[in-house]
Specification:
The chain is of the alpha/beta class and 248 residues long. Helices cover 30% and strands 21% of the residues. It has seven helices and twelve strands. The protein has a six-stranded parallel beta sheet with strand order 3-2-1-4-5-12, with helices on both faces. Strands 6-11-10-7-8-9 form a six-stranded parallel beta sheet, with helices on one face. α3 links the parallel β4 and β5. α2 (52-62) packs across α3 (77-90) and α5 (178-187) crosses α6 (205-213). The relative contact order is 0.17. The structure holds NADP nicotinamide-adenine-dinucleotide phosphate. NADP nicotinamide-adenine-dinucleotide phosphate binds at residues 7-10, 30-32, 34, 49-52, 55-56, 72-73, 75-79, 82, 135, 196.
Length: 248
């Protein structure tokens, strides 16, 4: 019997959820619980961490999960690594739904860094106005460059004082448009755009806006992950069908 666990938190995970519900595949959707009001899914949904590898193995067993689709964000490496180990231990089939990374185009001025932790050093020393759309978890890294003004785009209002002195918080949830991101960057007189190489369309507008405004972008590469990945909902549906035929 096929029973799927879909690890979510991305636009692609929502598209995957819609397709699975349309074809009636028995699926549980899982959110980490990072945002206050996560988007509703057309599937039974659970919210919160599993409790590491051991917790995830126990969950897979209790729920009799046969297939895990890891559609977490490419930078949510902890969850993806736990899924690899837990699925191997329990014996569930695992696939990652992962969009292709963004690639610089003509007119782009990108500085590539290996890790998010390397981003602050890539900023200039002279005061700049920085568009920081990298989520809330790692903004403390930028306290080493307090001379800059940071425009933070967040899903929810911060629940604790921000570790940066000069900030403007913009509350918004993607997907975003090039027109609105261009206007936002112009209104806030942005000089530098920081981005994690998430890929996909939901957060791409900031790169198109940066190109239109000829702004430099500091781009962090993705963490390396193990295991098989497919880049479309269709491909994952095909994988599910094939593994069902093999009796997995
Ligand atoms: P992470 O560092 O990889 O995960 C940390 C812990 O959060 C995991 O070990 C797990 O806790 C729990 N977790 C993460 N995703 C989960 C899920 N879908 N269902 C249940 N538990 C989950 O992840 P993160 O970077 O904090 O991201 C958290 C969530 O936000 C993910 O679902 C991701 O798709 C989404 N998101 C992340 C980013 C980003 O830039 N990192 C951007 C957009 C959306 P336990 O060990 O207790 O199981």
């Amino acid at each position: 019997m096929m029973r799927v666990l879909l690890l979510g938190g991305t636009t692609e995970a929502s598209a995957m959820a819609l397709r699975l519900s349309q074809v009636g595949i028995d699926t549980v959707f899982s959110y980490a619980g990072r945002t206050l009001a996560p988007a509703r899914q057309p599937l039974p949904t659970r919210i919160g961490g599993f409790g590491g590898v051991a917790g995830l193995v126990a969950y897979l067993r209790a729920q009799a999960i046969s297939h895990v689709i890891d559609a977490t964000h490419p930078f949510a490496a902890g969850m993806s690594r736990n899924a690899v180990v837990a699925c191997a231990q329990f014996g569930a089939a695992l696939i990652r739904l992962e969009r292709a990374p963004w690639v610089a185009q003509a007119g782009d001025d990108w500085t590539m860094v290996d890790r998010v932790e390397d981003m602050p050093a890539a900023l200039p020393d002279t005061p700049a106005r920085v568009f920081l759309a990298i989520g809330k978890q790692q903004i403390g890294l930028f306290s080493v460059k307090p001379q800059h003004h940071y425009v933070l785009r967040l899903v929810d209002a911060p629940d604790a004082p921000l570790p940066l002195a000069q900030t403007t918080v913009v509350l918004a949830r993607g997907p975003f448009t090039t027109t609105s991101d261009t206007a936002l960057m112009r209104d806030h007189r942005i000089t530098h755009v920081l981005a994690k190489n998430a890929g996909g369309t939901a957060a791409q507008a900031k790169l198109e806006a940066a190109r239109a405004l000829r702004l430099p972008v500091i781009m962090a590469a993705r963490p390396a992950l193990q295991g098989r990945a497919l880049d479309t909902v269709d491909a994952v549906m095909g994988w599910l069908g094939h593994s069902a035929l093999r009796g997995e």
